[in-house]
Amino acid sequence: MKPTSEILARLKAITGEKGFIGDDLGMAPHLEERRELFHGRAAAVLKPASTEEVSAIMRIAHEAGVPVVPQGGNTGLVGGQIPDQSGEAIILSLSRMNRIRGIDSANNTLTVEAGVTLAGVQAEAEMAGRLFPLSLASEGSCQIGGNLASNAGGTQVLRYGNARDLVLGLEVVLANGDVWNGLKGLRKDNTGYDLRHLFLGSEGTLGIITAAVLKLFPRPEAVSTAFAAVPSVDAAVSLLRIADSVSGGQVSTFELVPRIGLDFLTTHLEGITDPLADRSPWYVLIEMTAGTRAHLDEAMEASLKEGLEQGLVTDAAIAQSEAQRAGFWRLRESLSDVQRFEGGSIKHDVSVPVSSMGAFIARAEKAVDERLPGVRVVAFGHIGDGNVHFNLSQPVAMEKQAFLGLWGEMNAIVHGIVREMGGSISAEHGVGQLKRDEIAATKSPVEMELMRSLKRALDPKGILNPGKVV
Question: Rounded to 10 degrees, what is the CA torsion of 232, 238, 241, 246?
Fold first, then answer.
């Protein structure tokens, strides 16, 4: 139901002028996601400054049946933060809820509100001599509430896990305005259901995360970073196992980079050159971290030496300075954006067992090329945890819109192979609008009904982020 002028006035009274946007120009940045795939309309954008204000807003919305779309930094890639075209929804932006509520260094925990940027969380941890390991390309603008609601991944999942693995407690406002205060810093609490995991990864469809107790870790004092050429994806996986074994589990990053991606980078971005002398079909960015530098470079060298002896590595370079390390990382972090210079790009964020990664990429490459000869596969990403961004750049001579018109068909081909191999069609970006209608083919009827039952129980009027996930 679209809110009446009376309801909007009541909502504005809660947030005040500073927290209410009702004009089209002011709302515009909140109505489109950055890839421009999803556009929405809204009755208003509300920016509450406290959990109490969020609760009051939800009580009114629940009473009136007004849809509410929670939004963080609006960096999501599946349309989960964008309302539909009806104009009935209000957008609930958590950006003003950006306080650090407390840090417990002895307990290695940090309590923050949902609107703190990921970079802000990282900086607060660093000031305390600790590490918060979640790391994303959008960390300067994405917000921790959105990271948790979408169970974000990033480049260090291999060592530290997804966002859900980095949370000890949550504060959540429910659909009816009730507040669950689960802000406990306990690592062991065996008293019934673990409610936090209902909301982590739920994309705002079950409740609104307003604050969280986050796990902190010792800050690594030593880092060893290498860029290595490998002849195949299977060779990369074998090298990962060697590096993990030789280092005693100190590999924190293991990222796959394709030759075509490196060609895009050296063609379109200033200051980027090939880091190795000879061309290779594949490369990996490897990073090891530890509390002390003793033996870390030696572990990296030993791993690469063994890889060379086994034919798994053809060339490699270990960063000798922070500038060289930053250069290696720039290659990896620019891979997604550089594809826009080559025209249309159809994205896939999928996962399969690490052991199946080579077989998946080979099968999927063959399948999409049979459907569209000349399509350029740019497969890259977090091979260490089985997550690959299997992106497709348009054939050189093809018209962009005609290529993008094949988005659904290409998704069906790639996701079909993923399902056959026991994988997931959404490894770290979530479901949102983009994949909502596909997950029923991935999950069993029992799983889908369990999800729908939870949705009905926690949001009986269906006002929380309608049209997303289920």
Answer: -100
Asked whether residue 309 carries a pLDDT value surpassing 80, the answer given is yes
- Give the mean pLDDT of 187-194: 94
Residues 6+ apart with CB under 8 A from 369: 375, 377
409: helix, strand or coil: helix
Give the bridge partners for 390, in sequence order.
379
Q: Quick check: 166 and 134 in contact, CB under 8 A?
A: yes
Sequence-ordered list of residues with C-beta below 8 angstroms from that of 317, at least 6 positions apart, any chain: 226, 227, 228, 275, 276, 324
Q: Which residues pair with 388 in a beta bridge?
A: 350
**108 with 207, same domain?**
yes
Q: Mark out the alpha helices in 269-406 (DSSP H runs).
A: 296-309, 322-333, 335-338, 357-371, 400-404
Helix (H) or strand (E) holding 85: none
The amino acid present at 215, given as its one-letter code, is K
- Give the residue among 367, 334, 360, 368 at the shortest CA–CA distance from 425: 360
Whether the CA torsion 30, 69, 195, 169 is positive or negative: it is positive
pTM exceeds 0.85, yes or no: yes
Q: Are residues 72 and 19 in the same domain?
A: yes
Which domain, by its residues, includes 274? 222-336
- Measured CA to CA, the distance from residue 169 to residue 35 in angstroms comes to 32
Q: How confident is the model at residue 374 (pLDDT cuts 50, 70, 90)?
A: very high
CA dist 376 and 384 (Å) reads 23
- Separation CA 346–CA 323 (nearest Å): 33
From 74, 94, 67, 129, select the one nearest 212 (Cα to Cα).
94
CATH number of the domain bearing residue 21: 3.30.43.10
> How crowded is residue 138: how many other Cβ atoms within 10 Å of its Cβ?
20
In a domain, 398, yes or no: yes
pLDDT at 293 over 80: no
Say whether both 425 and 408 belong to one domain.
yes
Encode 208-239: b = buried (16+ Cβ within 10 Å), e = exposed: bbbbbbbbbeeebeebbbbbbbbeebbbbbbb
> How far from the centroid of its chain's Cα atoms is residue 16's Cα?
32
Lowest-pLDDT choice from 80-84, 372-376, 398-402, 460-464: 80-84
Most confident of 31-35, 96-100, 295-299: 96-100
Alpha-carbon span 351 to 349, nearest angstrom: 7
Q: Where are the alpha helices (DSSP H) in 47-178?
A: 51-64, 118-127, 144-149, 157-160
